[in-house]
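Project standup — Tuesday

K.O.: blocked on the structure for the chain from last sprint. Re-posting the sequence here as requested.
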Amino acid sequence: MAVSAGLRSRLCQHRARERDYRSTQTIQVGGVQVGDTFTRWINQADRDCQVIAVHGSSYAYDYAMPKGQVFIRVGNRVSGKERPMGVASMPAWVRTACQKDAA
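H.V.: unblocked you, prediction finished:
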């Protein structure tokens, strides 16, 4: 199946944009504190994120999807890796921070 030049160009731009976001993730969260805000490319769009907990080199942040669902992700400042966080797999330090916010 042949791909048009216009579509190929848009795909290349999208991939370059994703690489740019990934390469700046560690720089953007160099010295995070609770309450800091930043933007991440998550689920095919920029999402406004807010740091909700910091523990050593790890940090947790939440972001909202367009229909109002809120999700939490945990990242590591040293490795630059991030992962989604479910309620069942939430570390105690994140759970404690969430309970303090709810009180």
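K.O.: great, moving the ticket to review. The chain is about 35% helix and 35% strand. Residues 5-102 form one domain.
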